[in-house]
Amino acid sequence: MKRRLKLFIIALCTVLLFTACGQQSSYGFSVTFLDVGQGDSALISCDGQYMLIDGGPASVGDTVYDYLRDNGIDHLNILAISHIHDDHIGGIERALSYASTEDIVLCNTDKYSLSASDESDNDRETFAKVEQQLSVNDAKIVVPNKGAKYKLGSAEVEVVDVGDDLSKNESLVLLVTYGQTTFLFTGDIEHNMEERICEDKNDNFPVTLLKVSHHGSDTSTSIRFLRMLEPKYAVISVGSNNRYNHPSEQTLSRLDQADVKVYRTDKDGNITVRSNGTDLDIQTSK
Question: Domain count of the chain?
Fold first, then answer.
């Protein structure tokens, strides 16, 4: 009797151990929103493949470089550039000096548009440096079509909108799907693009997590957009005490009214979101 009880306890412990290990390793997908100050950068990992979306401003290029180096990520399966403003592309040149291989490079434009009134000389110079580094890495920008899809391991990356590179803050908008969980990356889109996406999706486009556009500016994240998306979580990539007063109180209020759990890089540091295809596990570095 004692021997049977002992064997039963051993078997039970073994089952629990394997169950715990299975649960721990069941998160096959993760996205880390890097704390790059007043800018955007996110790294997605799925089944040993990697995608970098934006690289923050040039002043924090070492932040992105160090994260890639510390995690041994020298090959990006996809590099996505939402648009060519310095606070999104500045750190990419430095990052690509470590991740020296990029299979696919996506952007809403493959040229600097002289007629884009909001683009500064700094943006122009930064974009030229990124182009040069891509050339060194034997890679080039592809402007995708709306609706194009790409694989990242067992995850899918869909181009929701490409935007107009001649218009202020229009950006590449990407939906990343892993199992039943979805992540929407919006760059710096404003109300005009949000309205266009709402029309395209017939106001029915639920997502699990929203990367809040334009660092939480009041020019984005409209009530209609939030009602369509119904996100459970949102991440705002924003610098502490920034001169733009981002995120705006109006945007934070709309997110609160929509019952969205909000994370912010200025308060939470790096934000790592893991998915097992059904549930999310969110951890912060602060």
Answer: 1
In a domain, 18, yes or no: no
3-state secondary structure (DSSP) of residue 126: helix
Q: 161 φ, ψ to 5°?
A: -155, 150
Interacting residues of 197 by C-beta distance below 8 A, sequence separation 6+: 160, 161, 173, 205, 225, 228
Give me 77's structure tokens.
């399966």
Tens-place pLDDT, residues 240-273 = 999 999 999 999 999 999 999 999 999 999 999 9
Q: Which domain, by its residues, includes 173? A: 27-281
Q: Which residues of 250-268 are buried (b: 16+ CB within 10 A; e: fewer)?
A: ebbebbeebebebbbbbeb
Q: Supply the CATH number for residue 44's domain.
A: 3.60.15.10
71-84 tens-digit pLDDT: 999 999 999 999 99
Q: Is 264 helix (H, G, I), strand (E, B) or coil?
A: strand
Q: Is 16 helix (H, G, I), strand (E, B) or coil?
A: helix
Q: Is residue 20 part of a domain?
A: no
For the residues of 68-107, what is the DSSP string, one character each?
HHHTT--EEEEEEES---HHHHTTHHHHTTTS-EEEEEEE
Enclosing H/E stretch for 159? strand 155-161
15 domain-assigned: no
**Computed from CA positions of residues 82, 88, 89, 94, in that sequence, does the dihedral angle turn out positive or negative?**
negative
The reply to whether 9 falls in a domain is no
CA atoms within 13 A on the CB side of 202: 0
The model's confidence at residue 121, banded by pLDDT at 50, 70 and 90, is confident
Distance CA 211, CA 197 (A): 15
